[in-house]
Design goal:
This protein is α/β, with parallel strands linked by helices and 280 residues long. It contains nine helices and 14 strands. Helix 2 runs parallel beside helix 9.
Length: 280
């Protein structure tokens, strides 16, 4: 069992808090902790950057933080795009022929729905429009097309949605063995498999944002719950795992925080702000 984050004695030196969204910041019902905008403003005033680190795209993340996204960092699309205060500072685009090849693989496999994730919108197959109520949660900008292999766009992530909640099994059986040599491939929970260019993940995103901000990753907190958070947890000096994560995630963190439903991220922010205030 990891020690509680409350035993972390170096919170006053923290300059960045990078936080996963689903099942980490957000409760099981998808709700945000109360007063998050006020907390993010307080962090900014203290010289600390709050960063949403997610498989979600930047436009969806901005919609989720309508009042304060201009004060934040974003590690969007699992590191495929990095923003600081609404300015795109880095992106990693997947070759057109490569994502078209992935679309074909998914179609032949037959168990998932292709999502071609552009910087500005998500391209989806018209045959999968029945999942629109779910897709719109994650992609607030969507375009349905008849043929995804005809899409030519700035694409920084390719994602497969598995409505049967079997992405981990399909990853182990088919996607991982076939594609891990060519791409960064990861499960994002039980419903998604995400593809980024090789070497692109939330950890590379955290390091890139730290370099842009002039921050040592040793002074960063990363908070997460699942596979696509592993590299970020290991890249940060303070790798915090939420209590609702599966126990295998503990091997990748330094401390444990209360669960998403117990608003563990908000508790971490409050503790950092208190530590900074007491050190001045």
């Amino acid at each position: 069992m990891l020690p509680s984050f409350e035993t972390d004695t170096d919170l006053a030196s923290v300059k960045l808090i990078a936080c996963d969204m689903d099942l980490t910041l957000l409760a099981d019902d998808g709700s945000m902790p109360p007063h998050m905008a006020e907390r993010i403003r307080a962090l900014d005033a203290a010289g600390i950057t709050f960063c949403a680190a997610s498989g979600r795209p930047s436009y969806t993340l901005c919609d989720m933080f309508p009042e304060v996204h201009h004060l934040m960092g974003l590690i969007a699309d699992n590191g495929g795009a990095i923003f600081d205060k609404d300015v795109l500072i880095d992106k990693s685009l997947i070759d057109v022929d490569a994502y078209r090849e992935l679309v074909g693989f998914t179609a032949r496999d037959g168990r998932g729905c292709s999502c071609v994730c552009g910087i500005d919108t998500c391209y989806l197959s018209r045959k999968d429009e029945r999942f629109e109520p779910y897709f719109k949660i994650f992609y607030t900008s969507r375009i349905y097309v008849d043929d995804l292999t005809a899409v030519s766009a700035d694409v920084n992530k390719y994602t497969v949605y598995f409505p049967d909640n079997n992405s981990e099994e399909v990853f182990a059986e088919a996607y991982g063995p076939t594609w891990s040599d060519r791409f960064s491939v990861t499960n994002a929970g039980k419903q998604w498999i995400d593809f980024m260019n090789k070497g692109v993940n939330k950890g590379s995103g955290l390091r890139g944002l730290c370099a842009h901000l002039g921050i040592n990753p040793a002074d960063a907190i990363a908070i997460g719950d699942t596979y696509n958070d592993i590299q970020m947890l290991e890249a940060a000096g303070h790798g915090y795992v939420v209590a609702n994560a599966e126990e295998h995630m503990h091997a990748h963190g330094t401390h444990l925080v209360p669960s998403n439903n117990d608003r563990g991220v908000a508790q971490v922010i409050d503790a950092v702000l208190a530590a900074v205030a007491s050190s001045r």
